Recover the amino acids of this structure.
């Protein structure tokens, strides 16, 4: 049987895969420019990046199955960045305060024969109206760093979520229902 390679450096994706009994043979992160294309919408951005990550890593492991994923937070047609500094995280949280947004989590599985299967999960998340003190306290914890939209739903931010429709694991970074379906269709999981 071919090996499964995870094209991601995310420890959250490894943890999520373990929840469905999947341990990749290796982790080989794809290093690529994640900047949105002009006029690219959030779902298309997530799908393009998941496919590009998988394709990049597939070229390095031609005899393996490659799993690529990407998660994008969208506020309307805007793609929110991965927060790399506190100012960006604050902007994201202020924008998301009291409103609904969508989290698009795309998954691509490339087989050793080069065929690719794709899935996209879209979840709706609504935060309560966040006070300045709540935003300050959340930022002080640091778990926002490197997270799409400036928050990690699997951490303290979950206490601010008043509504979630869709995949909790997708908001974390890997939609397990869709991922399991891809792996099962490829014969890597039973039923």
């Amino acid at each position: 049987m071919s090996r499964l390679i995870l094209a991601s450096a995310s420890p959250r994706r490894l943890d999520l895969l373990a929840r469905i009994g999947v341990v990749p043979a290796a982790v080989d992160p794809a290093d690529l420019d994640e900047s949105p294309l002009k006029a690219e919408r959030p779902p298309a951005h997530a799908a393009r990046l998941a496919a590009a990550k998988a394709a990049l890593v597939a070229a390095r492991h031609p005899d393996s199955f490659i799993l690529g994923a990407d998660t994008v937070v969208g506020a309307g047609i805007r793609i929110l960045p991965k927060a790399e500094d506190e100012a960006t995280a604050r902007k994201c949280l202020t924008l998301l305060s009291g409103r609904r947004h969508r989290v698009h989590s795309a998954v691509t599985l490339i087989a050793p024969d080069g065929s690719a299967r794709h899935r996209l999960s879209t979840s709706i998340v609504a935060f309560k109206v966040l006070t300045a003190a709540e935003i300050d306290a959340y930022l002080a914890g640091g778990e926002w760093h490197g997270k799409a939209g400036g928050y990690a739903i699997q951490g303290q931010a979950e206490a601010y979520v008043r509504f979630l429709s869709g995949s909790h694991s997708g908001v974390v970074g890997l939609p397990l229902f869709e991922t399991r379906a891809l792996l099962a269709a490829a014969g890597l999981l039973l039923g």
In short: Strands lie at 4-6, 26-27, 65-75, 78-80, 100-110, 116-127, 161-165. The CA atoms of residues 29 and 184 lie 23 Å apart. The chain has a mean pLDDT of 96.
